UniProtKB/TrEMBL annotation:
One of its GO terms (molecular function) is zinc ion binding. It comes from the Bacteria. This is DUF3458 domain-containing protein. Gene3D superfamilies: Peptidase M1, alanyl aminopeptidase, C-terminal domain (1.25.50.10). It holds the Pfam family DUF3458_C. Residues 1-184 form the Peptidase M1 alanyl aminopeptidase C-terminal domain. InterPro entries: Peptidase_M1_pepN, Peptidase_M1_pepN_C, Peptidase_M1_pepN_C_sf.
Amino acid sequence: LSYLMAAEGDRAIGRAMTQFDTAPTMTDRLAALALLAMTESAAREAALARFYEAWRGDDLVLDKWFAIQAGVAAATTLGHVQALARHADFTLRNPNRVRALIGTFSQANPLAFHDPSGAGYELLARTVIALDAANPQLASRLVTAFGLWRRLPEARREMMRETLATLARHPGLSANTGEMVRKMFTAAG
């Protein structure tokens, strides 16, 4: 199906919807959903909405729903992730949910995370600060997404360095997260 989607584009959306609707296994259904999520189509919105309604009570499956959307390599993903961070089923009290949305976005989706505006860096920094008091281990793990800052083009490198500096200046940062921020500053990339 992924080959058909790559070769036929919009013409294969119907096939992906058929697989989504008739998949005998969760693996097949998730594969179809991930492919549909990469499109800008009504089928994308319909599949995401139907999947959410069907599985909203199952945290593990819902984590997949968040991760699939955060992993879409598209210019619109940053806005989608910002909206999902305000979703009723997103909470910083669920570490798996944070990893699914923010971890996938910042560590597995370089196109969206390194948005030219720097908003991806700001989203991660705000999440780290909000999460740090309750779960410093996860907050410090998320900071590792800033580890390649020295390798970036100058404009993005400067935005990421400034975001790290903002994190370093934040009062009350946990020892774990503070140590990781310092390591990212000294990381060679």
